[in-house]
Amino acid sequence: MDFKYLNKTSMKFNHFKISYFQGRKLCFKIFNMAEKLIIKNLRVGIEGKEIIKGISLEVKRGEVHAIMGPNGSGKSTLAYALMGHPKYEIMEGEVIYKDKNILQLPPDERAKLGIFLAFQHPLEIDGVRLSTFLWQSYVKKFENSNKKPNIIEFRKELKNALINAGMKEDMIDRFLNVGFSGGEKKRTEIVQMAVLKPEIAILDEIDSGLDIDAVRIVAENVNRLVKENNMGVLIITHYQRILNYIRPDYVYVLIDGKIVDKGDYKLAEELEKEGYLKYGIEEKEEVLTWKN
Ligand SMILES: Nc1ncnc2c1ncn2[C@@H]1O[C@H](COP(=O)(O)OP(=O)(O)OP(=O)(O)O)[C@@H](O)[C@H]1O
Ligand SMILES: [Mg+2]
Fold it and tell me: What pLDDT was estimated at residue 245?
């Protein structure tokens, strides 16, 4: 079914009428059933030390999965390993997307397949303007398709993405992340996500260092792409507060490289109140009770 033939407000099926977004979601579900990131018994090491100790989970498009865990539990290690950072050594396991074991692909091929990583600590790249960096990533996205990238379309998308992220347009002429505030760096990750429209987004502590208005803006952008593009999300976070705005379908607790608990949104609320104490991790009270 081609979406352009759908009525923008609603669709009529034999005996019932559903909203445009419900219909779109249904179509996506039918046509993208195989599109899920499958992590199978993944073990990852750094310099010979095992950090991720056998993780298995599946992120379908359109679903939001949250991984929560204390400092040093291996959250970023998992994110980097999924995206193919060379520092992280795959000791065992598979990560399948679109019938490919992506662990055998270089990072840019993983990106071309539709996987995106928002960094916990975005890199500064002196001499490369944000607009140039994004245009190059945008062009790459089209390498596997019959369509050609269109600069006018790109500019429009970029402008909208900047507005939606609450950023000024002149940021696109600045060198990537150089001199950006912590919050601007995080918003820039969101601008990249909005322009590249990934199928699966891995967001590593996208909320850290953001004030509450920025958390809300980031969440709105993520929710929009989940709804409009059926984006699957693996959101990694230390705190529950962003999950007030991005409601996860599943929540996992990661301790010492292992998933020790799994639940729904209520598990995140529990962690907000109780911390990781029941898993044997003591943290400072004020860190965990930080409310918006
Ligand atoms: N080069 C390295 N050599 C040895 N250990 C390392 C190396 N790099 C990272 N680690 C360790 O791997 C563990 C997991 O780190 P990681 O950054 O994945 O944790 P995290 O859960 O993302 O923490 P945070 O909440 O602080 O972001 C930590 O104990 C860290 O010290
Ligand atoms: Mg981290």
Answer: 95
Nearest alpha carbon, ligand 1 atom 6: 46
Tokens of 139: 């062009």
State the pLDDT confidence band at 4, using cuts at 50, 70 and 90.
very low
- Residue ranges of the alpha helices (H) in 48-176? 75-83, 107-112, 130-141, 151-164
Q: 192-224: per-residue pLDDT in tens?
A: 999 999 999 999 999 998 999 999 999 999 999
Q: DSSP string of 141-155? A: HTTTSSS---HHHHH
Q: Ligand 1 site: residues with CB under 6 angstroms?
A: 46-47, 49, 51, 69, 71-77, 120, 205, 238
Domain ranges within the chain, ordered by starting residue: 60-279
How many whole angstroms from 74 Cα to the centroid of ligand 2? 7
**Regarding the domain with residue range 60-279, which homologous superfamily does it belong to in the CATH classification?**
P-loop containing nucleotide triphosphate hydrolases (3.40.50.300)
Mean pLDDT of all residues belonging to the chain: 88
